[in-house]
UniProtKB/TrEMBL annotation:
The keyword 4Fe-4S does not apply. Residues 11-35 form the UPF0033 domain. This is TusA-related sulfurtransferase. InterPro entries: TusA-like, TusA-like_sf. Belongs to the sulfur carrier protein TusA family. GO terms for molecular function: transferase activity. It comes from Haladaptatus paucihalophilus DX253. PANTHER family: SULFUR CARRIER PROTEIN YEDF-RELATED. Keywords: Transferase. It comes from the Archaea.
């Protein structure tokens, strides 16, 4: 798990598939203040490219990092998104 960021909130979208991780992430970042960091925990492998693509094309958010872990024999993807405006 990343310790580089001061995580403000964690969003658990495990078990949800495209497009829901992006939709839920967008909703969660809307409620953050500038500079706050959202950790998104997902099990959908597509979330790696989907959330990166969303962050790259959305004003006001920045993808800080993405990690792939394994928990209980299942891949878990962590995304760290900062609200920039």
């Amino acid at each position: 798990m990343s310790t580089e960021f001061d995580i403000t909130e964690t969003l658990d979208v495990q078990g949800l598939n495209c497009p829901m991780p992006v939709v839920k992430t967008k909703q969660a970042t809307d409620s953050l203040a500038e500079g706050e960091v959202l950790e998104v925990v997902a099990t959908d492998p597509g979330s790696m490219s989907d959330l990166k693509g969303w962050a790259d094309t959305t004003d006001g958010v920045e993808m800080l990092d993405q990690e792939e872990d394994e928990e209980g024999g299942e891949a878990v993807y962590r995304h760290f998104v900062r609200k920039t405006e």
